[in-house]
Amino acid sequence: MSDPLVAELMAALPADRVLVDPDVVAPYLHDEAEWAVHGRAAAVVRPRSTDEVAVVVRACARHSRPLVPRGAGTGLSGGANAVDGCVVLSTERMREIVEIDEAERLAVVQPGVVNDDLRAAAAERGLWYPPDPASSPWSTLGGNVATNAGGLCCVKYGVTRDYVLALEVVTASGEVVRVGRRTAKGVAGYDLAGLMVGSEGTLGVITEITVRLRPLRTGTPRTVVGFFDTLTAAGDAVSRVTARGLQPSAFELVDRVCLHAVNAWKHAGLPEDAAVLLLAQTDLPEPAAEQEAAAILAEFEAAGARDAVFSTDPVEADALFDARRLAYPALEQRGEALLTEDVCLPRGRLAEMLARVEEIAARHDVMIANIAHAGDGNLHPLLLTPHGDEAAKRRAQAAFDDIVDAALALGGTVTGEHGVGLLKLPGMRAELGPEVLALQRAVKQALDPQGILNPGKVVG
Amino acid sequence: MSDPLVAELMAALPADRVLVDPDVVAPYLHDEAEWAVHGRAAAVVRPRSTDEVAVVVRACARHSRPLVPRGAGTGLSGGANAVDGCVVLSTERMREIVEIDEAERLAVVQPGVVNDDLRAAAAERGLWYPPDPASSPWSTLGGNVATNAGGLCCVKYGVTRDYVLALEVVTASGEVVRVGRRTAKGVAGYDLAGLMVGSEGTLGVITEITVRLRPLRTGTPRTVVGFFDTLTAAGDAVSRVTARGLQPSAFELVDRVCLHAVNAWKHAGLPEDAAVLLLAQTDLPEPAAEQEAAAILAEFEAAGARDAVFSTDPVEADALFDARRLAYPALEQRGEALLTEDVCLPRGRLAEMLARVEEIAARHDVMIANIAHAGDGNLHPLLLTPHGDEAAKRRAQAAFDDIVDAALALGGTVTGEHGVGLLKLPGMRAELGPEVLALQRAVKQALDPQGILNPGKVVG
Q1: Closest Cβ opposite residue B191 in set A171, A197, A431
Q2: CATH number for the domain running over A222-409
Q3: Does the structural domain A4-90 have CATH classification 3.40.50.1820?
Q4: Could you name the domain of life of the organism this protein comes from (chains A, B) (predicted)?
Q5: How confident is the model at residue A1 (pLDDT cuts 50, 70, 90)?
Q6: Fewer Cβ atoms within 10 Å of its own Cβ: the N or the C terminal residue of chain B?
Q7: Chain segment B157-185, per-residue pLDDT in tens
Q8: How many beta-carbon contacts under 8 Å exist across A and B?
C-alpha cells in the first residue's frame, strides 16, 4: 500500500477496520442519489468507537486529506458520495443504543443505530421517537441527524432537529467535544448542536446522539381519504384543513401516476381517473379523533372530493394507507431509473406546483409521479427514465432543474428534507444568494479551516 | 458633539432617531439583571426600519465601535447592557405586525413587537404563538429571539427556537440578509436562523422575524394542585407524572418562601407548612383532559401530596394558579433587591437541587425563594437582599455562584432560558469547557470579525 495515510490508518487501527479492496469498497462510494457523481476512495474505515473515529479524523487532518462520513447510504442527494482520494468513514459498526431514560424521556445512541431499531427499543419503554423518514428500516440516526431527516410525522411532530438534544462530535482537528445538553431547556452559548444537524458531515463527525423522546402514542389513528378530480380541488382541501386549525398526524398526497402504478402492481382497484388521492390521519384521543376525522372529511367534501371516507376500524385504516405505502415500490417495479425530487412549498402553493410539474413533465417528455407530505407542502416528484436511455436521462435532468426553479419561483425551498448533497448545490446557491452563501462558507471555514470534512457538499 | 460616529449617525438619520442626553440615555444602558455591570453609551439610536438599522451597523463597522442591540430591556442576565463608547440600538420603534397568514400558519413581525401583542393579534385569526416568558406583557419578539425565551408553555410546546422559521438580519458588515424560510420544512444549507436564535445580538441585528403559529387552543385548561411536605415528595411527583407519559401544558413549582410571601401580601390562606406547591395544567380535548387531570392527581397523591385537587370549573382553575402568578410580585412587594437565577436540571434531579439551594441559602445566610418550570427541570431561585446592604449583596453573589456550581454538578446547565449575558459567563465557561468555547468563538469570529456586535456577551 503506497498511500501513507492508508498505511497509517492500518497501523493505528485493528485489522478489520480498514477496507481497500476495490470490490469491497465500491458500495461505499455513493448513496442512492441517481446521477450524483462520485469519486474513488483511498479506503473505507469502519470504526467501532469515538476514539477510533478521532484517530481517523486526526490522520486525515495531518495528511490534509478529505474525509467523507457515511451512515447507511440511503441518502437521495449524493451527500455521502466519495471524492477522489478520500477516506470514507462508515458508522455502520457503531450501533449501540447506549441508554434510554424514561424519567428524562431521552435516548443516547451511537450514529450507526437504525432509525426503526431506536423506535422499537423506545416503544418497549413506553416512549416514541417520531422522525420517520421512508428509509427508517435502514437509515441510521447519524445520517438522519446529518441530513435533518423528516418523514410523515413531521406535519404534527417536527423533524429530526426538533429531537436532537446533544451530540458528541469529532471536530475537524480530531478533538472529541460534546455540544448541546441533556436538560429539557438550555441557552448556554450558541446552538452548535442545532448547527450540526443538517450539516451533512461537513462541520464534524457525529459519534453519539442524545435525542428527546415522546410518550408512546396509544390507540389507533383514524384515517381519512378523498379522491379529487383536479389538482386545484386537492390543494383547496389542504388549505381548508389547515385553515380550520386541524392537526392531522400525517397528511399525504398520491397522484394519478402513482395510483396507476399501484393498480398495475397490486390490482388495488383504485380509481384511475382521479387526479389526486389525499390521505390524512388523526391520533387525538377519542372522541376527539372521531371529531377531527369528521372535520377533515367535511373539508375534503367541501373542496369537491368524491369517494371521501373515514375509517372506523384499524384494519380498514391501514388498508386505506396502502396506496401511499405502495406508491414508491410500485414505481420501482417498473424497473426504471427513479430520481427522487424534494422541494417544499408554502402549503397554499402545492396545487400550483403540481400543475407546473405536470407541465414540465409534458414539455420534457418525462414521466413524473408525485407523492407529497401535503400538510407540510413537501413534494417529491419522482422522475422515471428507462435505464440506459441517455436521451431520456438528459430530458429528466432538465426537468429536475425546472422543478427546482419552479419551487423557488413559488416561494419554496429546493430541499425540504433530503438535503443539499451534490444534486441540490446549484439550486441552493440560487435560493440563498451570494450574501447568505458567504455566511455559510464563513461558518464552514471557522469549523473546518482545512476543508477536509466532506468537501464539496452543502456549501460546495 | 465631538464623537465622529455620533455626528455621522445624526447626519444620516432623521433627528428623532438619535438620543444623547445622558438622562434620556440612562434607562437604555442596562436590562433588569441586578448587579450586572454596564458602561456608558455614546448614543442610543431608535431606528424605524431595516435600512436605518443597516445605516447604524455600517457606521459602527466603519468606526470599529461596539453596537449593543436591545429589545424592551426585560432581560435578567445583562445581555443588553451597554459597554463604554457603544451605540445602543433599541428596536422599540420597529413594532409592526407585518403579516399573519392563516393558511401557512405563520406571522411576520418587526423585532419591537411585544410578545402579548403578537399573541392577541394571532388569536383574532384563530392562531396561537405559544412561547410565553413571564415578561410577555412587555418583552419584544426581537429580545425573545435573541435570548431564545421560554416560559410556562415550553414543557409541552417548546421554546422560541421551535417557532422561528426565518429571520431578516443585518450582518456585522451592515448587509441585510434573510436566513431560514417560509415553508414548513427546509434543509438548504446550515441552519443560520437557528444559530441566530439565542445569540443575544452578537452575530447580527434581527430586523424581521417569521414565526410558526399553532391553531388557537379551545376549551379551558384543567388545573391540578398538590401541596407537598418535603422536596423529595414533590420531586417524586414530577418524576412520576413524566414517567407515566402525561403531558401537562404547564407544570410549575412554588416553594414555601413564595407561599409565605403570597399569604403576607394577599392573605391567600395557602398552607404555610407545606414545602412545595406543584401546579399542573392539561389542555387536551375533553374527556381526555379530565382523564389526564385525574392521572396527574393520582400521581401527586401517590407521591404523598396532601390537599391535592383538580378543578372542575375555569374560575376555580384560575384561582388555583394564582399562587404561581402572584409569587414573583409578592416577593417584589418586600422592596428588596431580587436576583433571579435560572438553572435547568435533568427533571429527576430537581428535588436534589432544591435541597442544595436550601443548604446554600443557610450557609450564606441569604433568603432564597424558588419557583420552577418543574416539568422542564428549569429552576429560578430568587435571591433577596435588602437594598444598600453591601455585606448581604456579597453573600448573595457567593450563593449565586454556588447555585451555578451545584447545577453543573447535578448534570444541569447554567441557564435554562434567560441567556448568558454577563452574569452567566463564568458558569458557561465551566459548563462548555475550552474546546467547545473555542468552537463558539470561531463562529463569532466568522460572523463578526471586527467583534463590534454586543462585545463581551455570550462568548465573553
Answers
A1: A197
A2: 3.40.462.10
A3: no
A4: Bacteria
A5: low
A6: N
A7: 999 999 999 999 999 999 999 999 999 99
A8: 260
